[in-house]
Amino acid sequence: ATVAGKSLKIGMIPADGIGREVLPGAKAAIQALGSSIPTTEFIDLQAGFECFQKTGTALPDETVEVLKNECDCALFGAVSSPSRKVFGYSSPIVALRKKMDLYANIRPVSSVAPIPNEQPTIDLVVVRENTECLGFSISKKKHRLLGKGAPKARATRLITEYASRRIGEMAFKIALTRPRKHVTIIHKSNVLSVTDGLFRETVRGVPTLPGMNGKYDGVTVAEQLVDSAVYRLFREPHIYDVMVAPNLYGDIISDAAAALVGSLGLVPSVNAGDSFVMGEPVHGSAPDIAGKDIANPLAAIRSAALMLRQLGYRNGAARIESAVDDVIREGRYLTPDLGGKSSTSEVVSQVVKRI
Ligand code: ATP
Ligand code: MG
């Protein structure tokens, strides 16, 4: 679906745990924008572990069909992962990314003073490839165990020029919208010279692809081995602007970056493809605090802003983002994860007021 003129249809998938508590906040923030974005219509959709327990599927066909045929974008809450393997259950978020071809996971991490334990100013975005790398093995055949009964395990890693090129383009596009316009390619091609070598070369080559016509001339490019990237992320996070990485490194880097800004409850993401975008807070379903109205709604609200930004509604996104920043800076209305005493709903209404 594409965003056509008049109305914006948003699929709402709260799923499990605190996902149900934080997604209404994201909705309220979008609604508070009023007429500065197209008329919005919210469509409630089912998915998640509870959905699996009730219906036998974690991602009903109807949810995917409505997303594909009726929605312009979506917001996802969080999904519970059962601690032991449950027969027939697989994560709906992984399936959604695949079915909607949401090949990029975009996670901006930035700091707003004054949050306890916070490092110096951080303003970076991790652009993680979502569709391949380790764990997306082509063959499911079991290998016969070799070596006199000693267990062995093997994983296959797939990196393609196609996927590397489109994630690279996404990273360059995002860099263009940011003040520093700097891309760092994260890889480990000193060890994985074939797969990471292909990733690195392909991303590097994006600006000189036919048809680019110097579009990315203003973007500077650096590269870094993933291990030293993590080290430098903790020592001097301010050096990074856009970090683009294959799936596995992107996963690790973005959680590490999230740790630098105080709480998981602050970090948003979007899953983006060429024709669909789905906002999703980075945190999980947080069963330890679910049902208490104390979950921090700001990651979900920022995810809504990010979704709007990705769709081209920059002003709407900026209004939500600055309202969130104001609430954090003021420090009067914060949930317990940030050392405050406010409830989820109280924080939401303070954000809405400022929008
Ligand atoms: P899941 O299996 O769904 O990922 P989890 O137990 O890993 O669940 P997370 O949601 O990843 O839980 O959260 C990890 C920790 O961070 C938990 O202690 C949780 O309470 C806290 N946390 C996560 N999100 C929030 C939030 N929005 N507000 C406050 N605390 C949060
Ligand atoms: Mg988790």
Briefly characterize the structure.
By secondary structure, this protein is of the alpha/beta class. Helix content is 37%, strand content 17%.
Descriptors:
355 residues; alpha/beta; ten-stranded mixed β-sheet; two-stranded antiparallel ribbon; 11 helices; 12 strands; globular; binds adenosine-5'-triphosphate; binds magnesium ion
Task: Explain what this protein looks like in three dimensions.
The protein is α/β, with parallel strands linked by helices. It is built from eleven helices and twelve strands. The strands form two sheets. Strands 2-1-3-12-11-4-5-10-8-9 form a ten-stranded mixed β-sheet, with helices on both faces. Residues 137-141 have low confidence and may be disordered. It binds adenosine-5'-triphosphate and magnesium ion. Residues 18, 22, 78, 80-81, 264-265, 283-289, 295-296, 299, 335, 337 line the site of adenosine-5'-triphosphate. Belongs to the isocitrate and isopropylmalate dehydrogenases family. InterPro entries: IsoCit/isopropylmalate_DH_CS (IPR019818), IsoPropMal-DH-like_dom (IPR024084). This is Isopropylmalate dehydrogenase-like domain-containing protein.
Averaged pLDDT: 90
Judging from the principal axes of the Cα atoms, what is the shape? globular
Residues in helices, as a percent range: 25-40%
End-to-end separation: 28 Å
- What is the H-and-E element order? EHEHHEHEEEEHEHEHEHEEHHH
Strand order of the largest sheet: 2-1-3-12-11-4-5-10-8-9
Number of continuous helical runs:
11
